[in-house]
Design goal:
heterodimer, A: 185 residues, 9 helices, B: mainly alpha, 66% helix
C-alpha cells in the first residue's frame, strides 16, 4: 500500500502508459485523446454550423467513456491515492519559479497562479487558460494528434508525421516556458 | 455494456498519469526547461515499450479482442500541418501544463478553472473544423 501512495517513478509510469496503449488497441480502437474535442463539439451541435462536425458521435461512444474514466480516475487519484502532492523538483526550477512570482513551487501539482479560482475573476488569468485551451484544441486537431496520439502511438509505430509533430510540440513548449511564461508572470 | 472496458481503462490511465505526476504543470515546466529527466523517462520508456507492442501487432503475435490484426491508423501527412499544428499545441501545453488527456484528469482533481481550459480546447477544435479546408497541409 505504501508504494501506491508514494509518487511513482518514471520507470513505473512509462511502462504503465505503454500498457494502457496496448489495452486500448487490444480493445479494438486507436489510442489517442484529442479527437474527443471534435466529438464533444459534435455533441454540442457544431454540425449545424459546419459539415466538418456532421458525424455520428455514437460511433465514438467508447472514447467518451474513456474521457469520463479520465475524470473519475483523476478524482480517485486526488482523493485517495495522493496524500501529498509535493514534487521532487530540481531546486533550480523552484528558484526560477519563485523569482517569476510562483509562490508554491513543487508543493502541489498545479500552481495557484494558473489554476487558482482567481482565473474566474481576473481577465488575465481567464485569458491565459482560455487561450491555452484554444491553442491545445486547434493545434492538436491541425497536427492530427496530441501527446498520446502522436508522441506515444505515432512515434512507437515509426510514423514520420508524428516525429514532425513532436518536434513542433517541443518548439512550442520551449517558446512558452522560456519566453511566454516570464512575460506573462 | 461492452464499451465499459474503456471507462475502466480511462480510470486506470488517469491514475497512472496522476501517480507519475505526468499531469503536473511543474513537471512539464521542468521538461521544457530540460531541468529534470523525469518526464523524458516517462515518455521515452512509454514509447520504447510501445515499439515492442507495435512489432508484436505487426507480426500478428498480439491480435485484438475480436481476433483481428491490430493496425494503428496512419497519421495524416503534411509537413506544415504537423509542424505548425504541433507548435501551436506546444504553446498551449507549455503555458497551461496540460495536454489533451490531462485536461480531463485535472477536472477530476476538482480544479474548476480547468473548465476554462476545456471550453478553450473545444473552441479551438471548433475553429479548426470551420477553417480546416483553407489551411495549408
Amino acid at each position: 500500500m505504501d508504494f501506491i501512495l508514494q509518487p511513482w517513478p518514471w520507470y513505473v509510469g512509462g511502462p504503465l502508459i505503454a500498457i494502457s496503449l496496448l489495452l486500448y488497441f487490444y480493445f479494438g480502437k486507436n489510442f489517442g485523446a484529442s479527437t474527443n474535442f471534435e466529438t464533444l463539439c459534435t455533441i454540442a451541435g457544431a454540425g449545424k454550423v459546419s459539415d466538418y462536425f456532421k458525424k455520428d458521435w455514437k460511433e465514438r461512444d467508447f472514447a467518451l467513456l474513456f474521457v469520463i474514466g479520465l475524470i473519475i480516475g483523476g478524482f480517485i487519484a486526488a482523493i485517495y491515492l495522493i496524500p501529498n502532492q509535493a514534487i521532487d523538483l530540481n531546486p533550480k526550477t523552484v528558484q526560477e519559479l519563485t523569482s517569476l512570482g510562483f509562490s508554491n513551487g513543487g508543493n502541489q501539482y498545479f500552481p495557484n497562479e494558473i489554476f487558482g479560482v482567481a482565473a474566474f475573476s481576473s481577465i488575465k488569468g481567464f485569458l491565459i487558460l482560455l487561450v491555452s485551451g484554444v491553442l491545445i484544441g486547434f493545434g492538436t486537431r491541425y497536427a492530427g494528434g496530441c501527446t498520446s496520439g502522436h508522441a506515444i502511438t505515432g512515434l512507437s509505430s515509426l510514423q514520420l508525421p508524428s516525429l514532425l509533430a513532436v518536434i513542433g510540440f517541443f518548439i512550442g513548449g520551449i517558446i512558452a516556458t522560456w519566453y511566454l511564461i516570464p512575460l506573462l508572470f | 455494456m461492452k464499451n465499459s472496458r474503456f471507462l475502466i481503462l480511462g480510470i486506470f490511465f488517469a491514475i497512472v498519469l496522476s501517480k507519475t505526476q505526468a499531469i503536473s504543470w511543474y513537471r512539464f515546466y521542468e521538461m521544457f526547461t530540460f531541468q529534470s529527466f523525469h518526464m523524458f523517462g516517462v515518455i521515452g520508456s512509454a514509447v520504447v515499450i510501445s515499439m515492442v507492442f507495435m512489432r508484436l501487432f505487426k507480426s500478428g503475435k498480439i491480435k485484438d479482442i475480436n481476433g483481428n490484426k491490430i493496425v494503428p491508423k496512419p497519421k495524416k501527412k503534411g509537413v506544415t500541418s504537423t509542424l505548425l499544428g504541433g507548435t501551436l499545441f506546444g504553446l498551449g501545453w507549455g503555458i497551461s501544463g496540460a495536454c489533451a488527456a490531462p485536461i480531463f484528469i485535472i477536472l477530476g482533481f476538482e480544479l474548476i478553472p480547468a473548465l476554462i481550459l476545456l471550453v478553450g480546447a473545444l473552441l479551438g477544435a471548433f475553429i479548426y473544423g470551420l477553417c480546416s479546408k483553407k489551411l495549408p497541409n
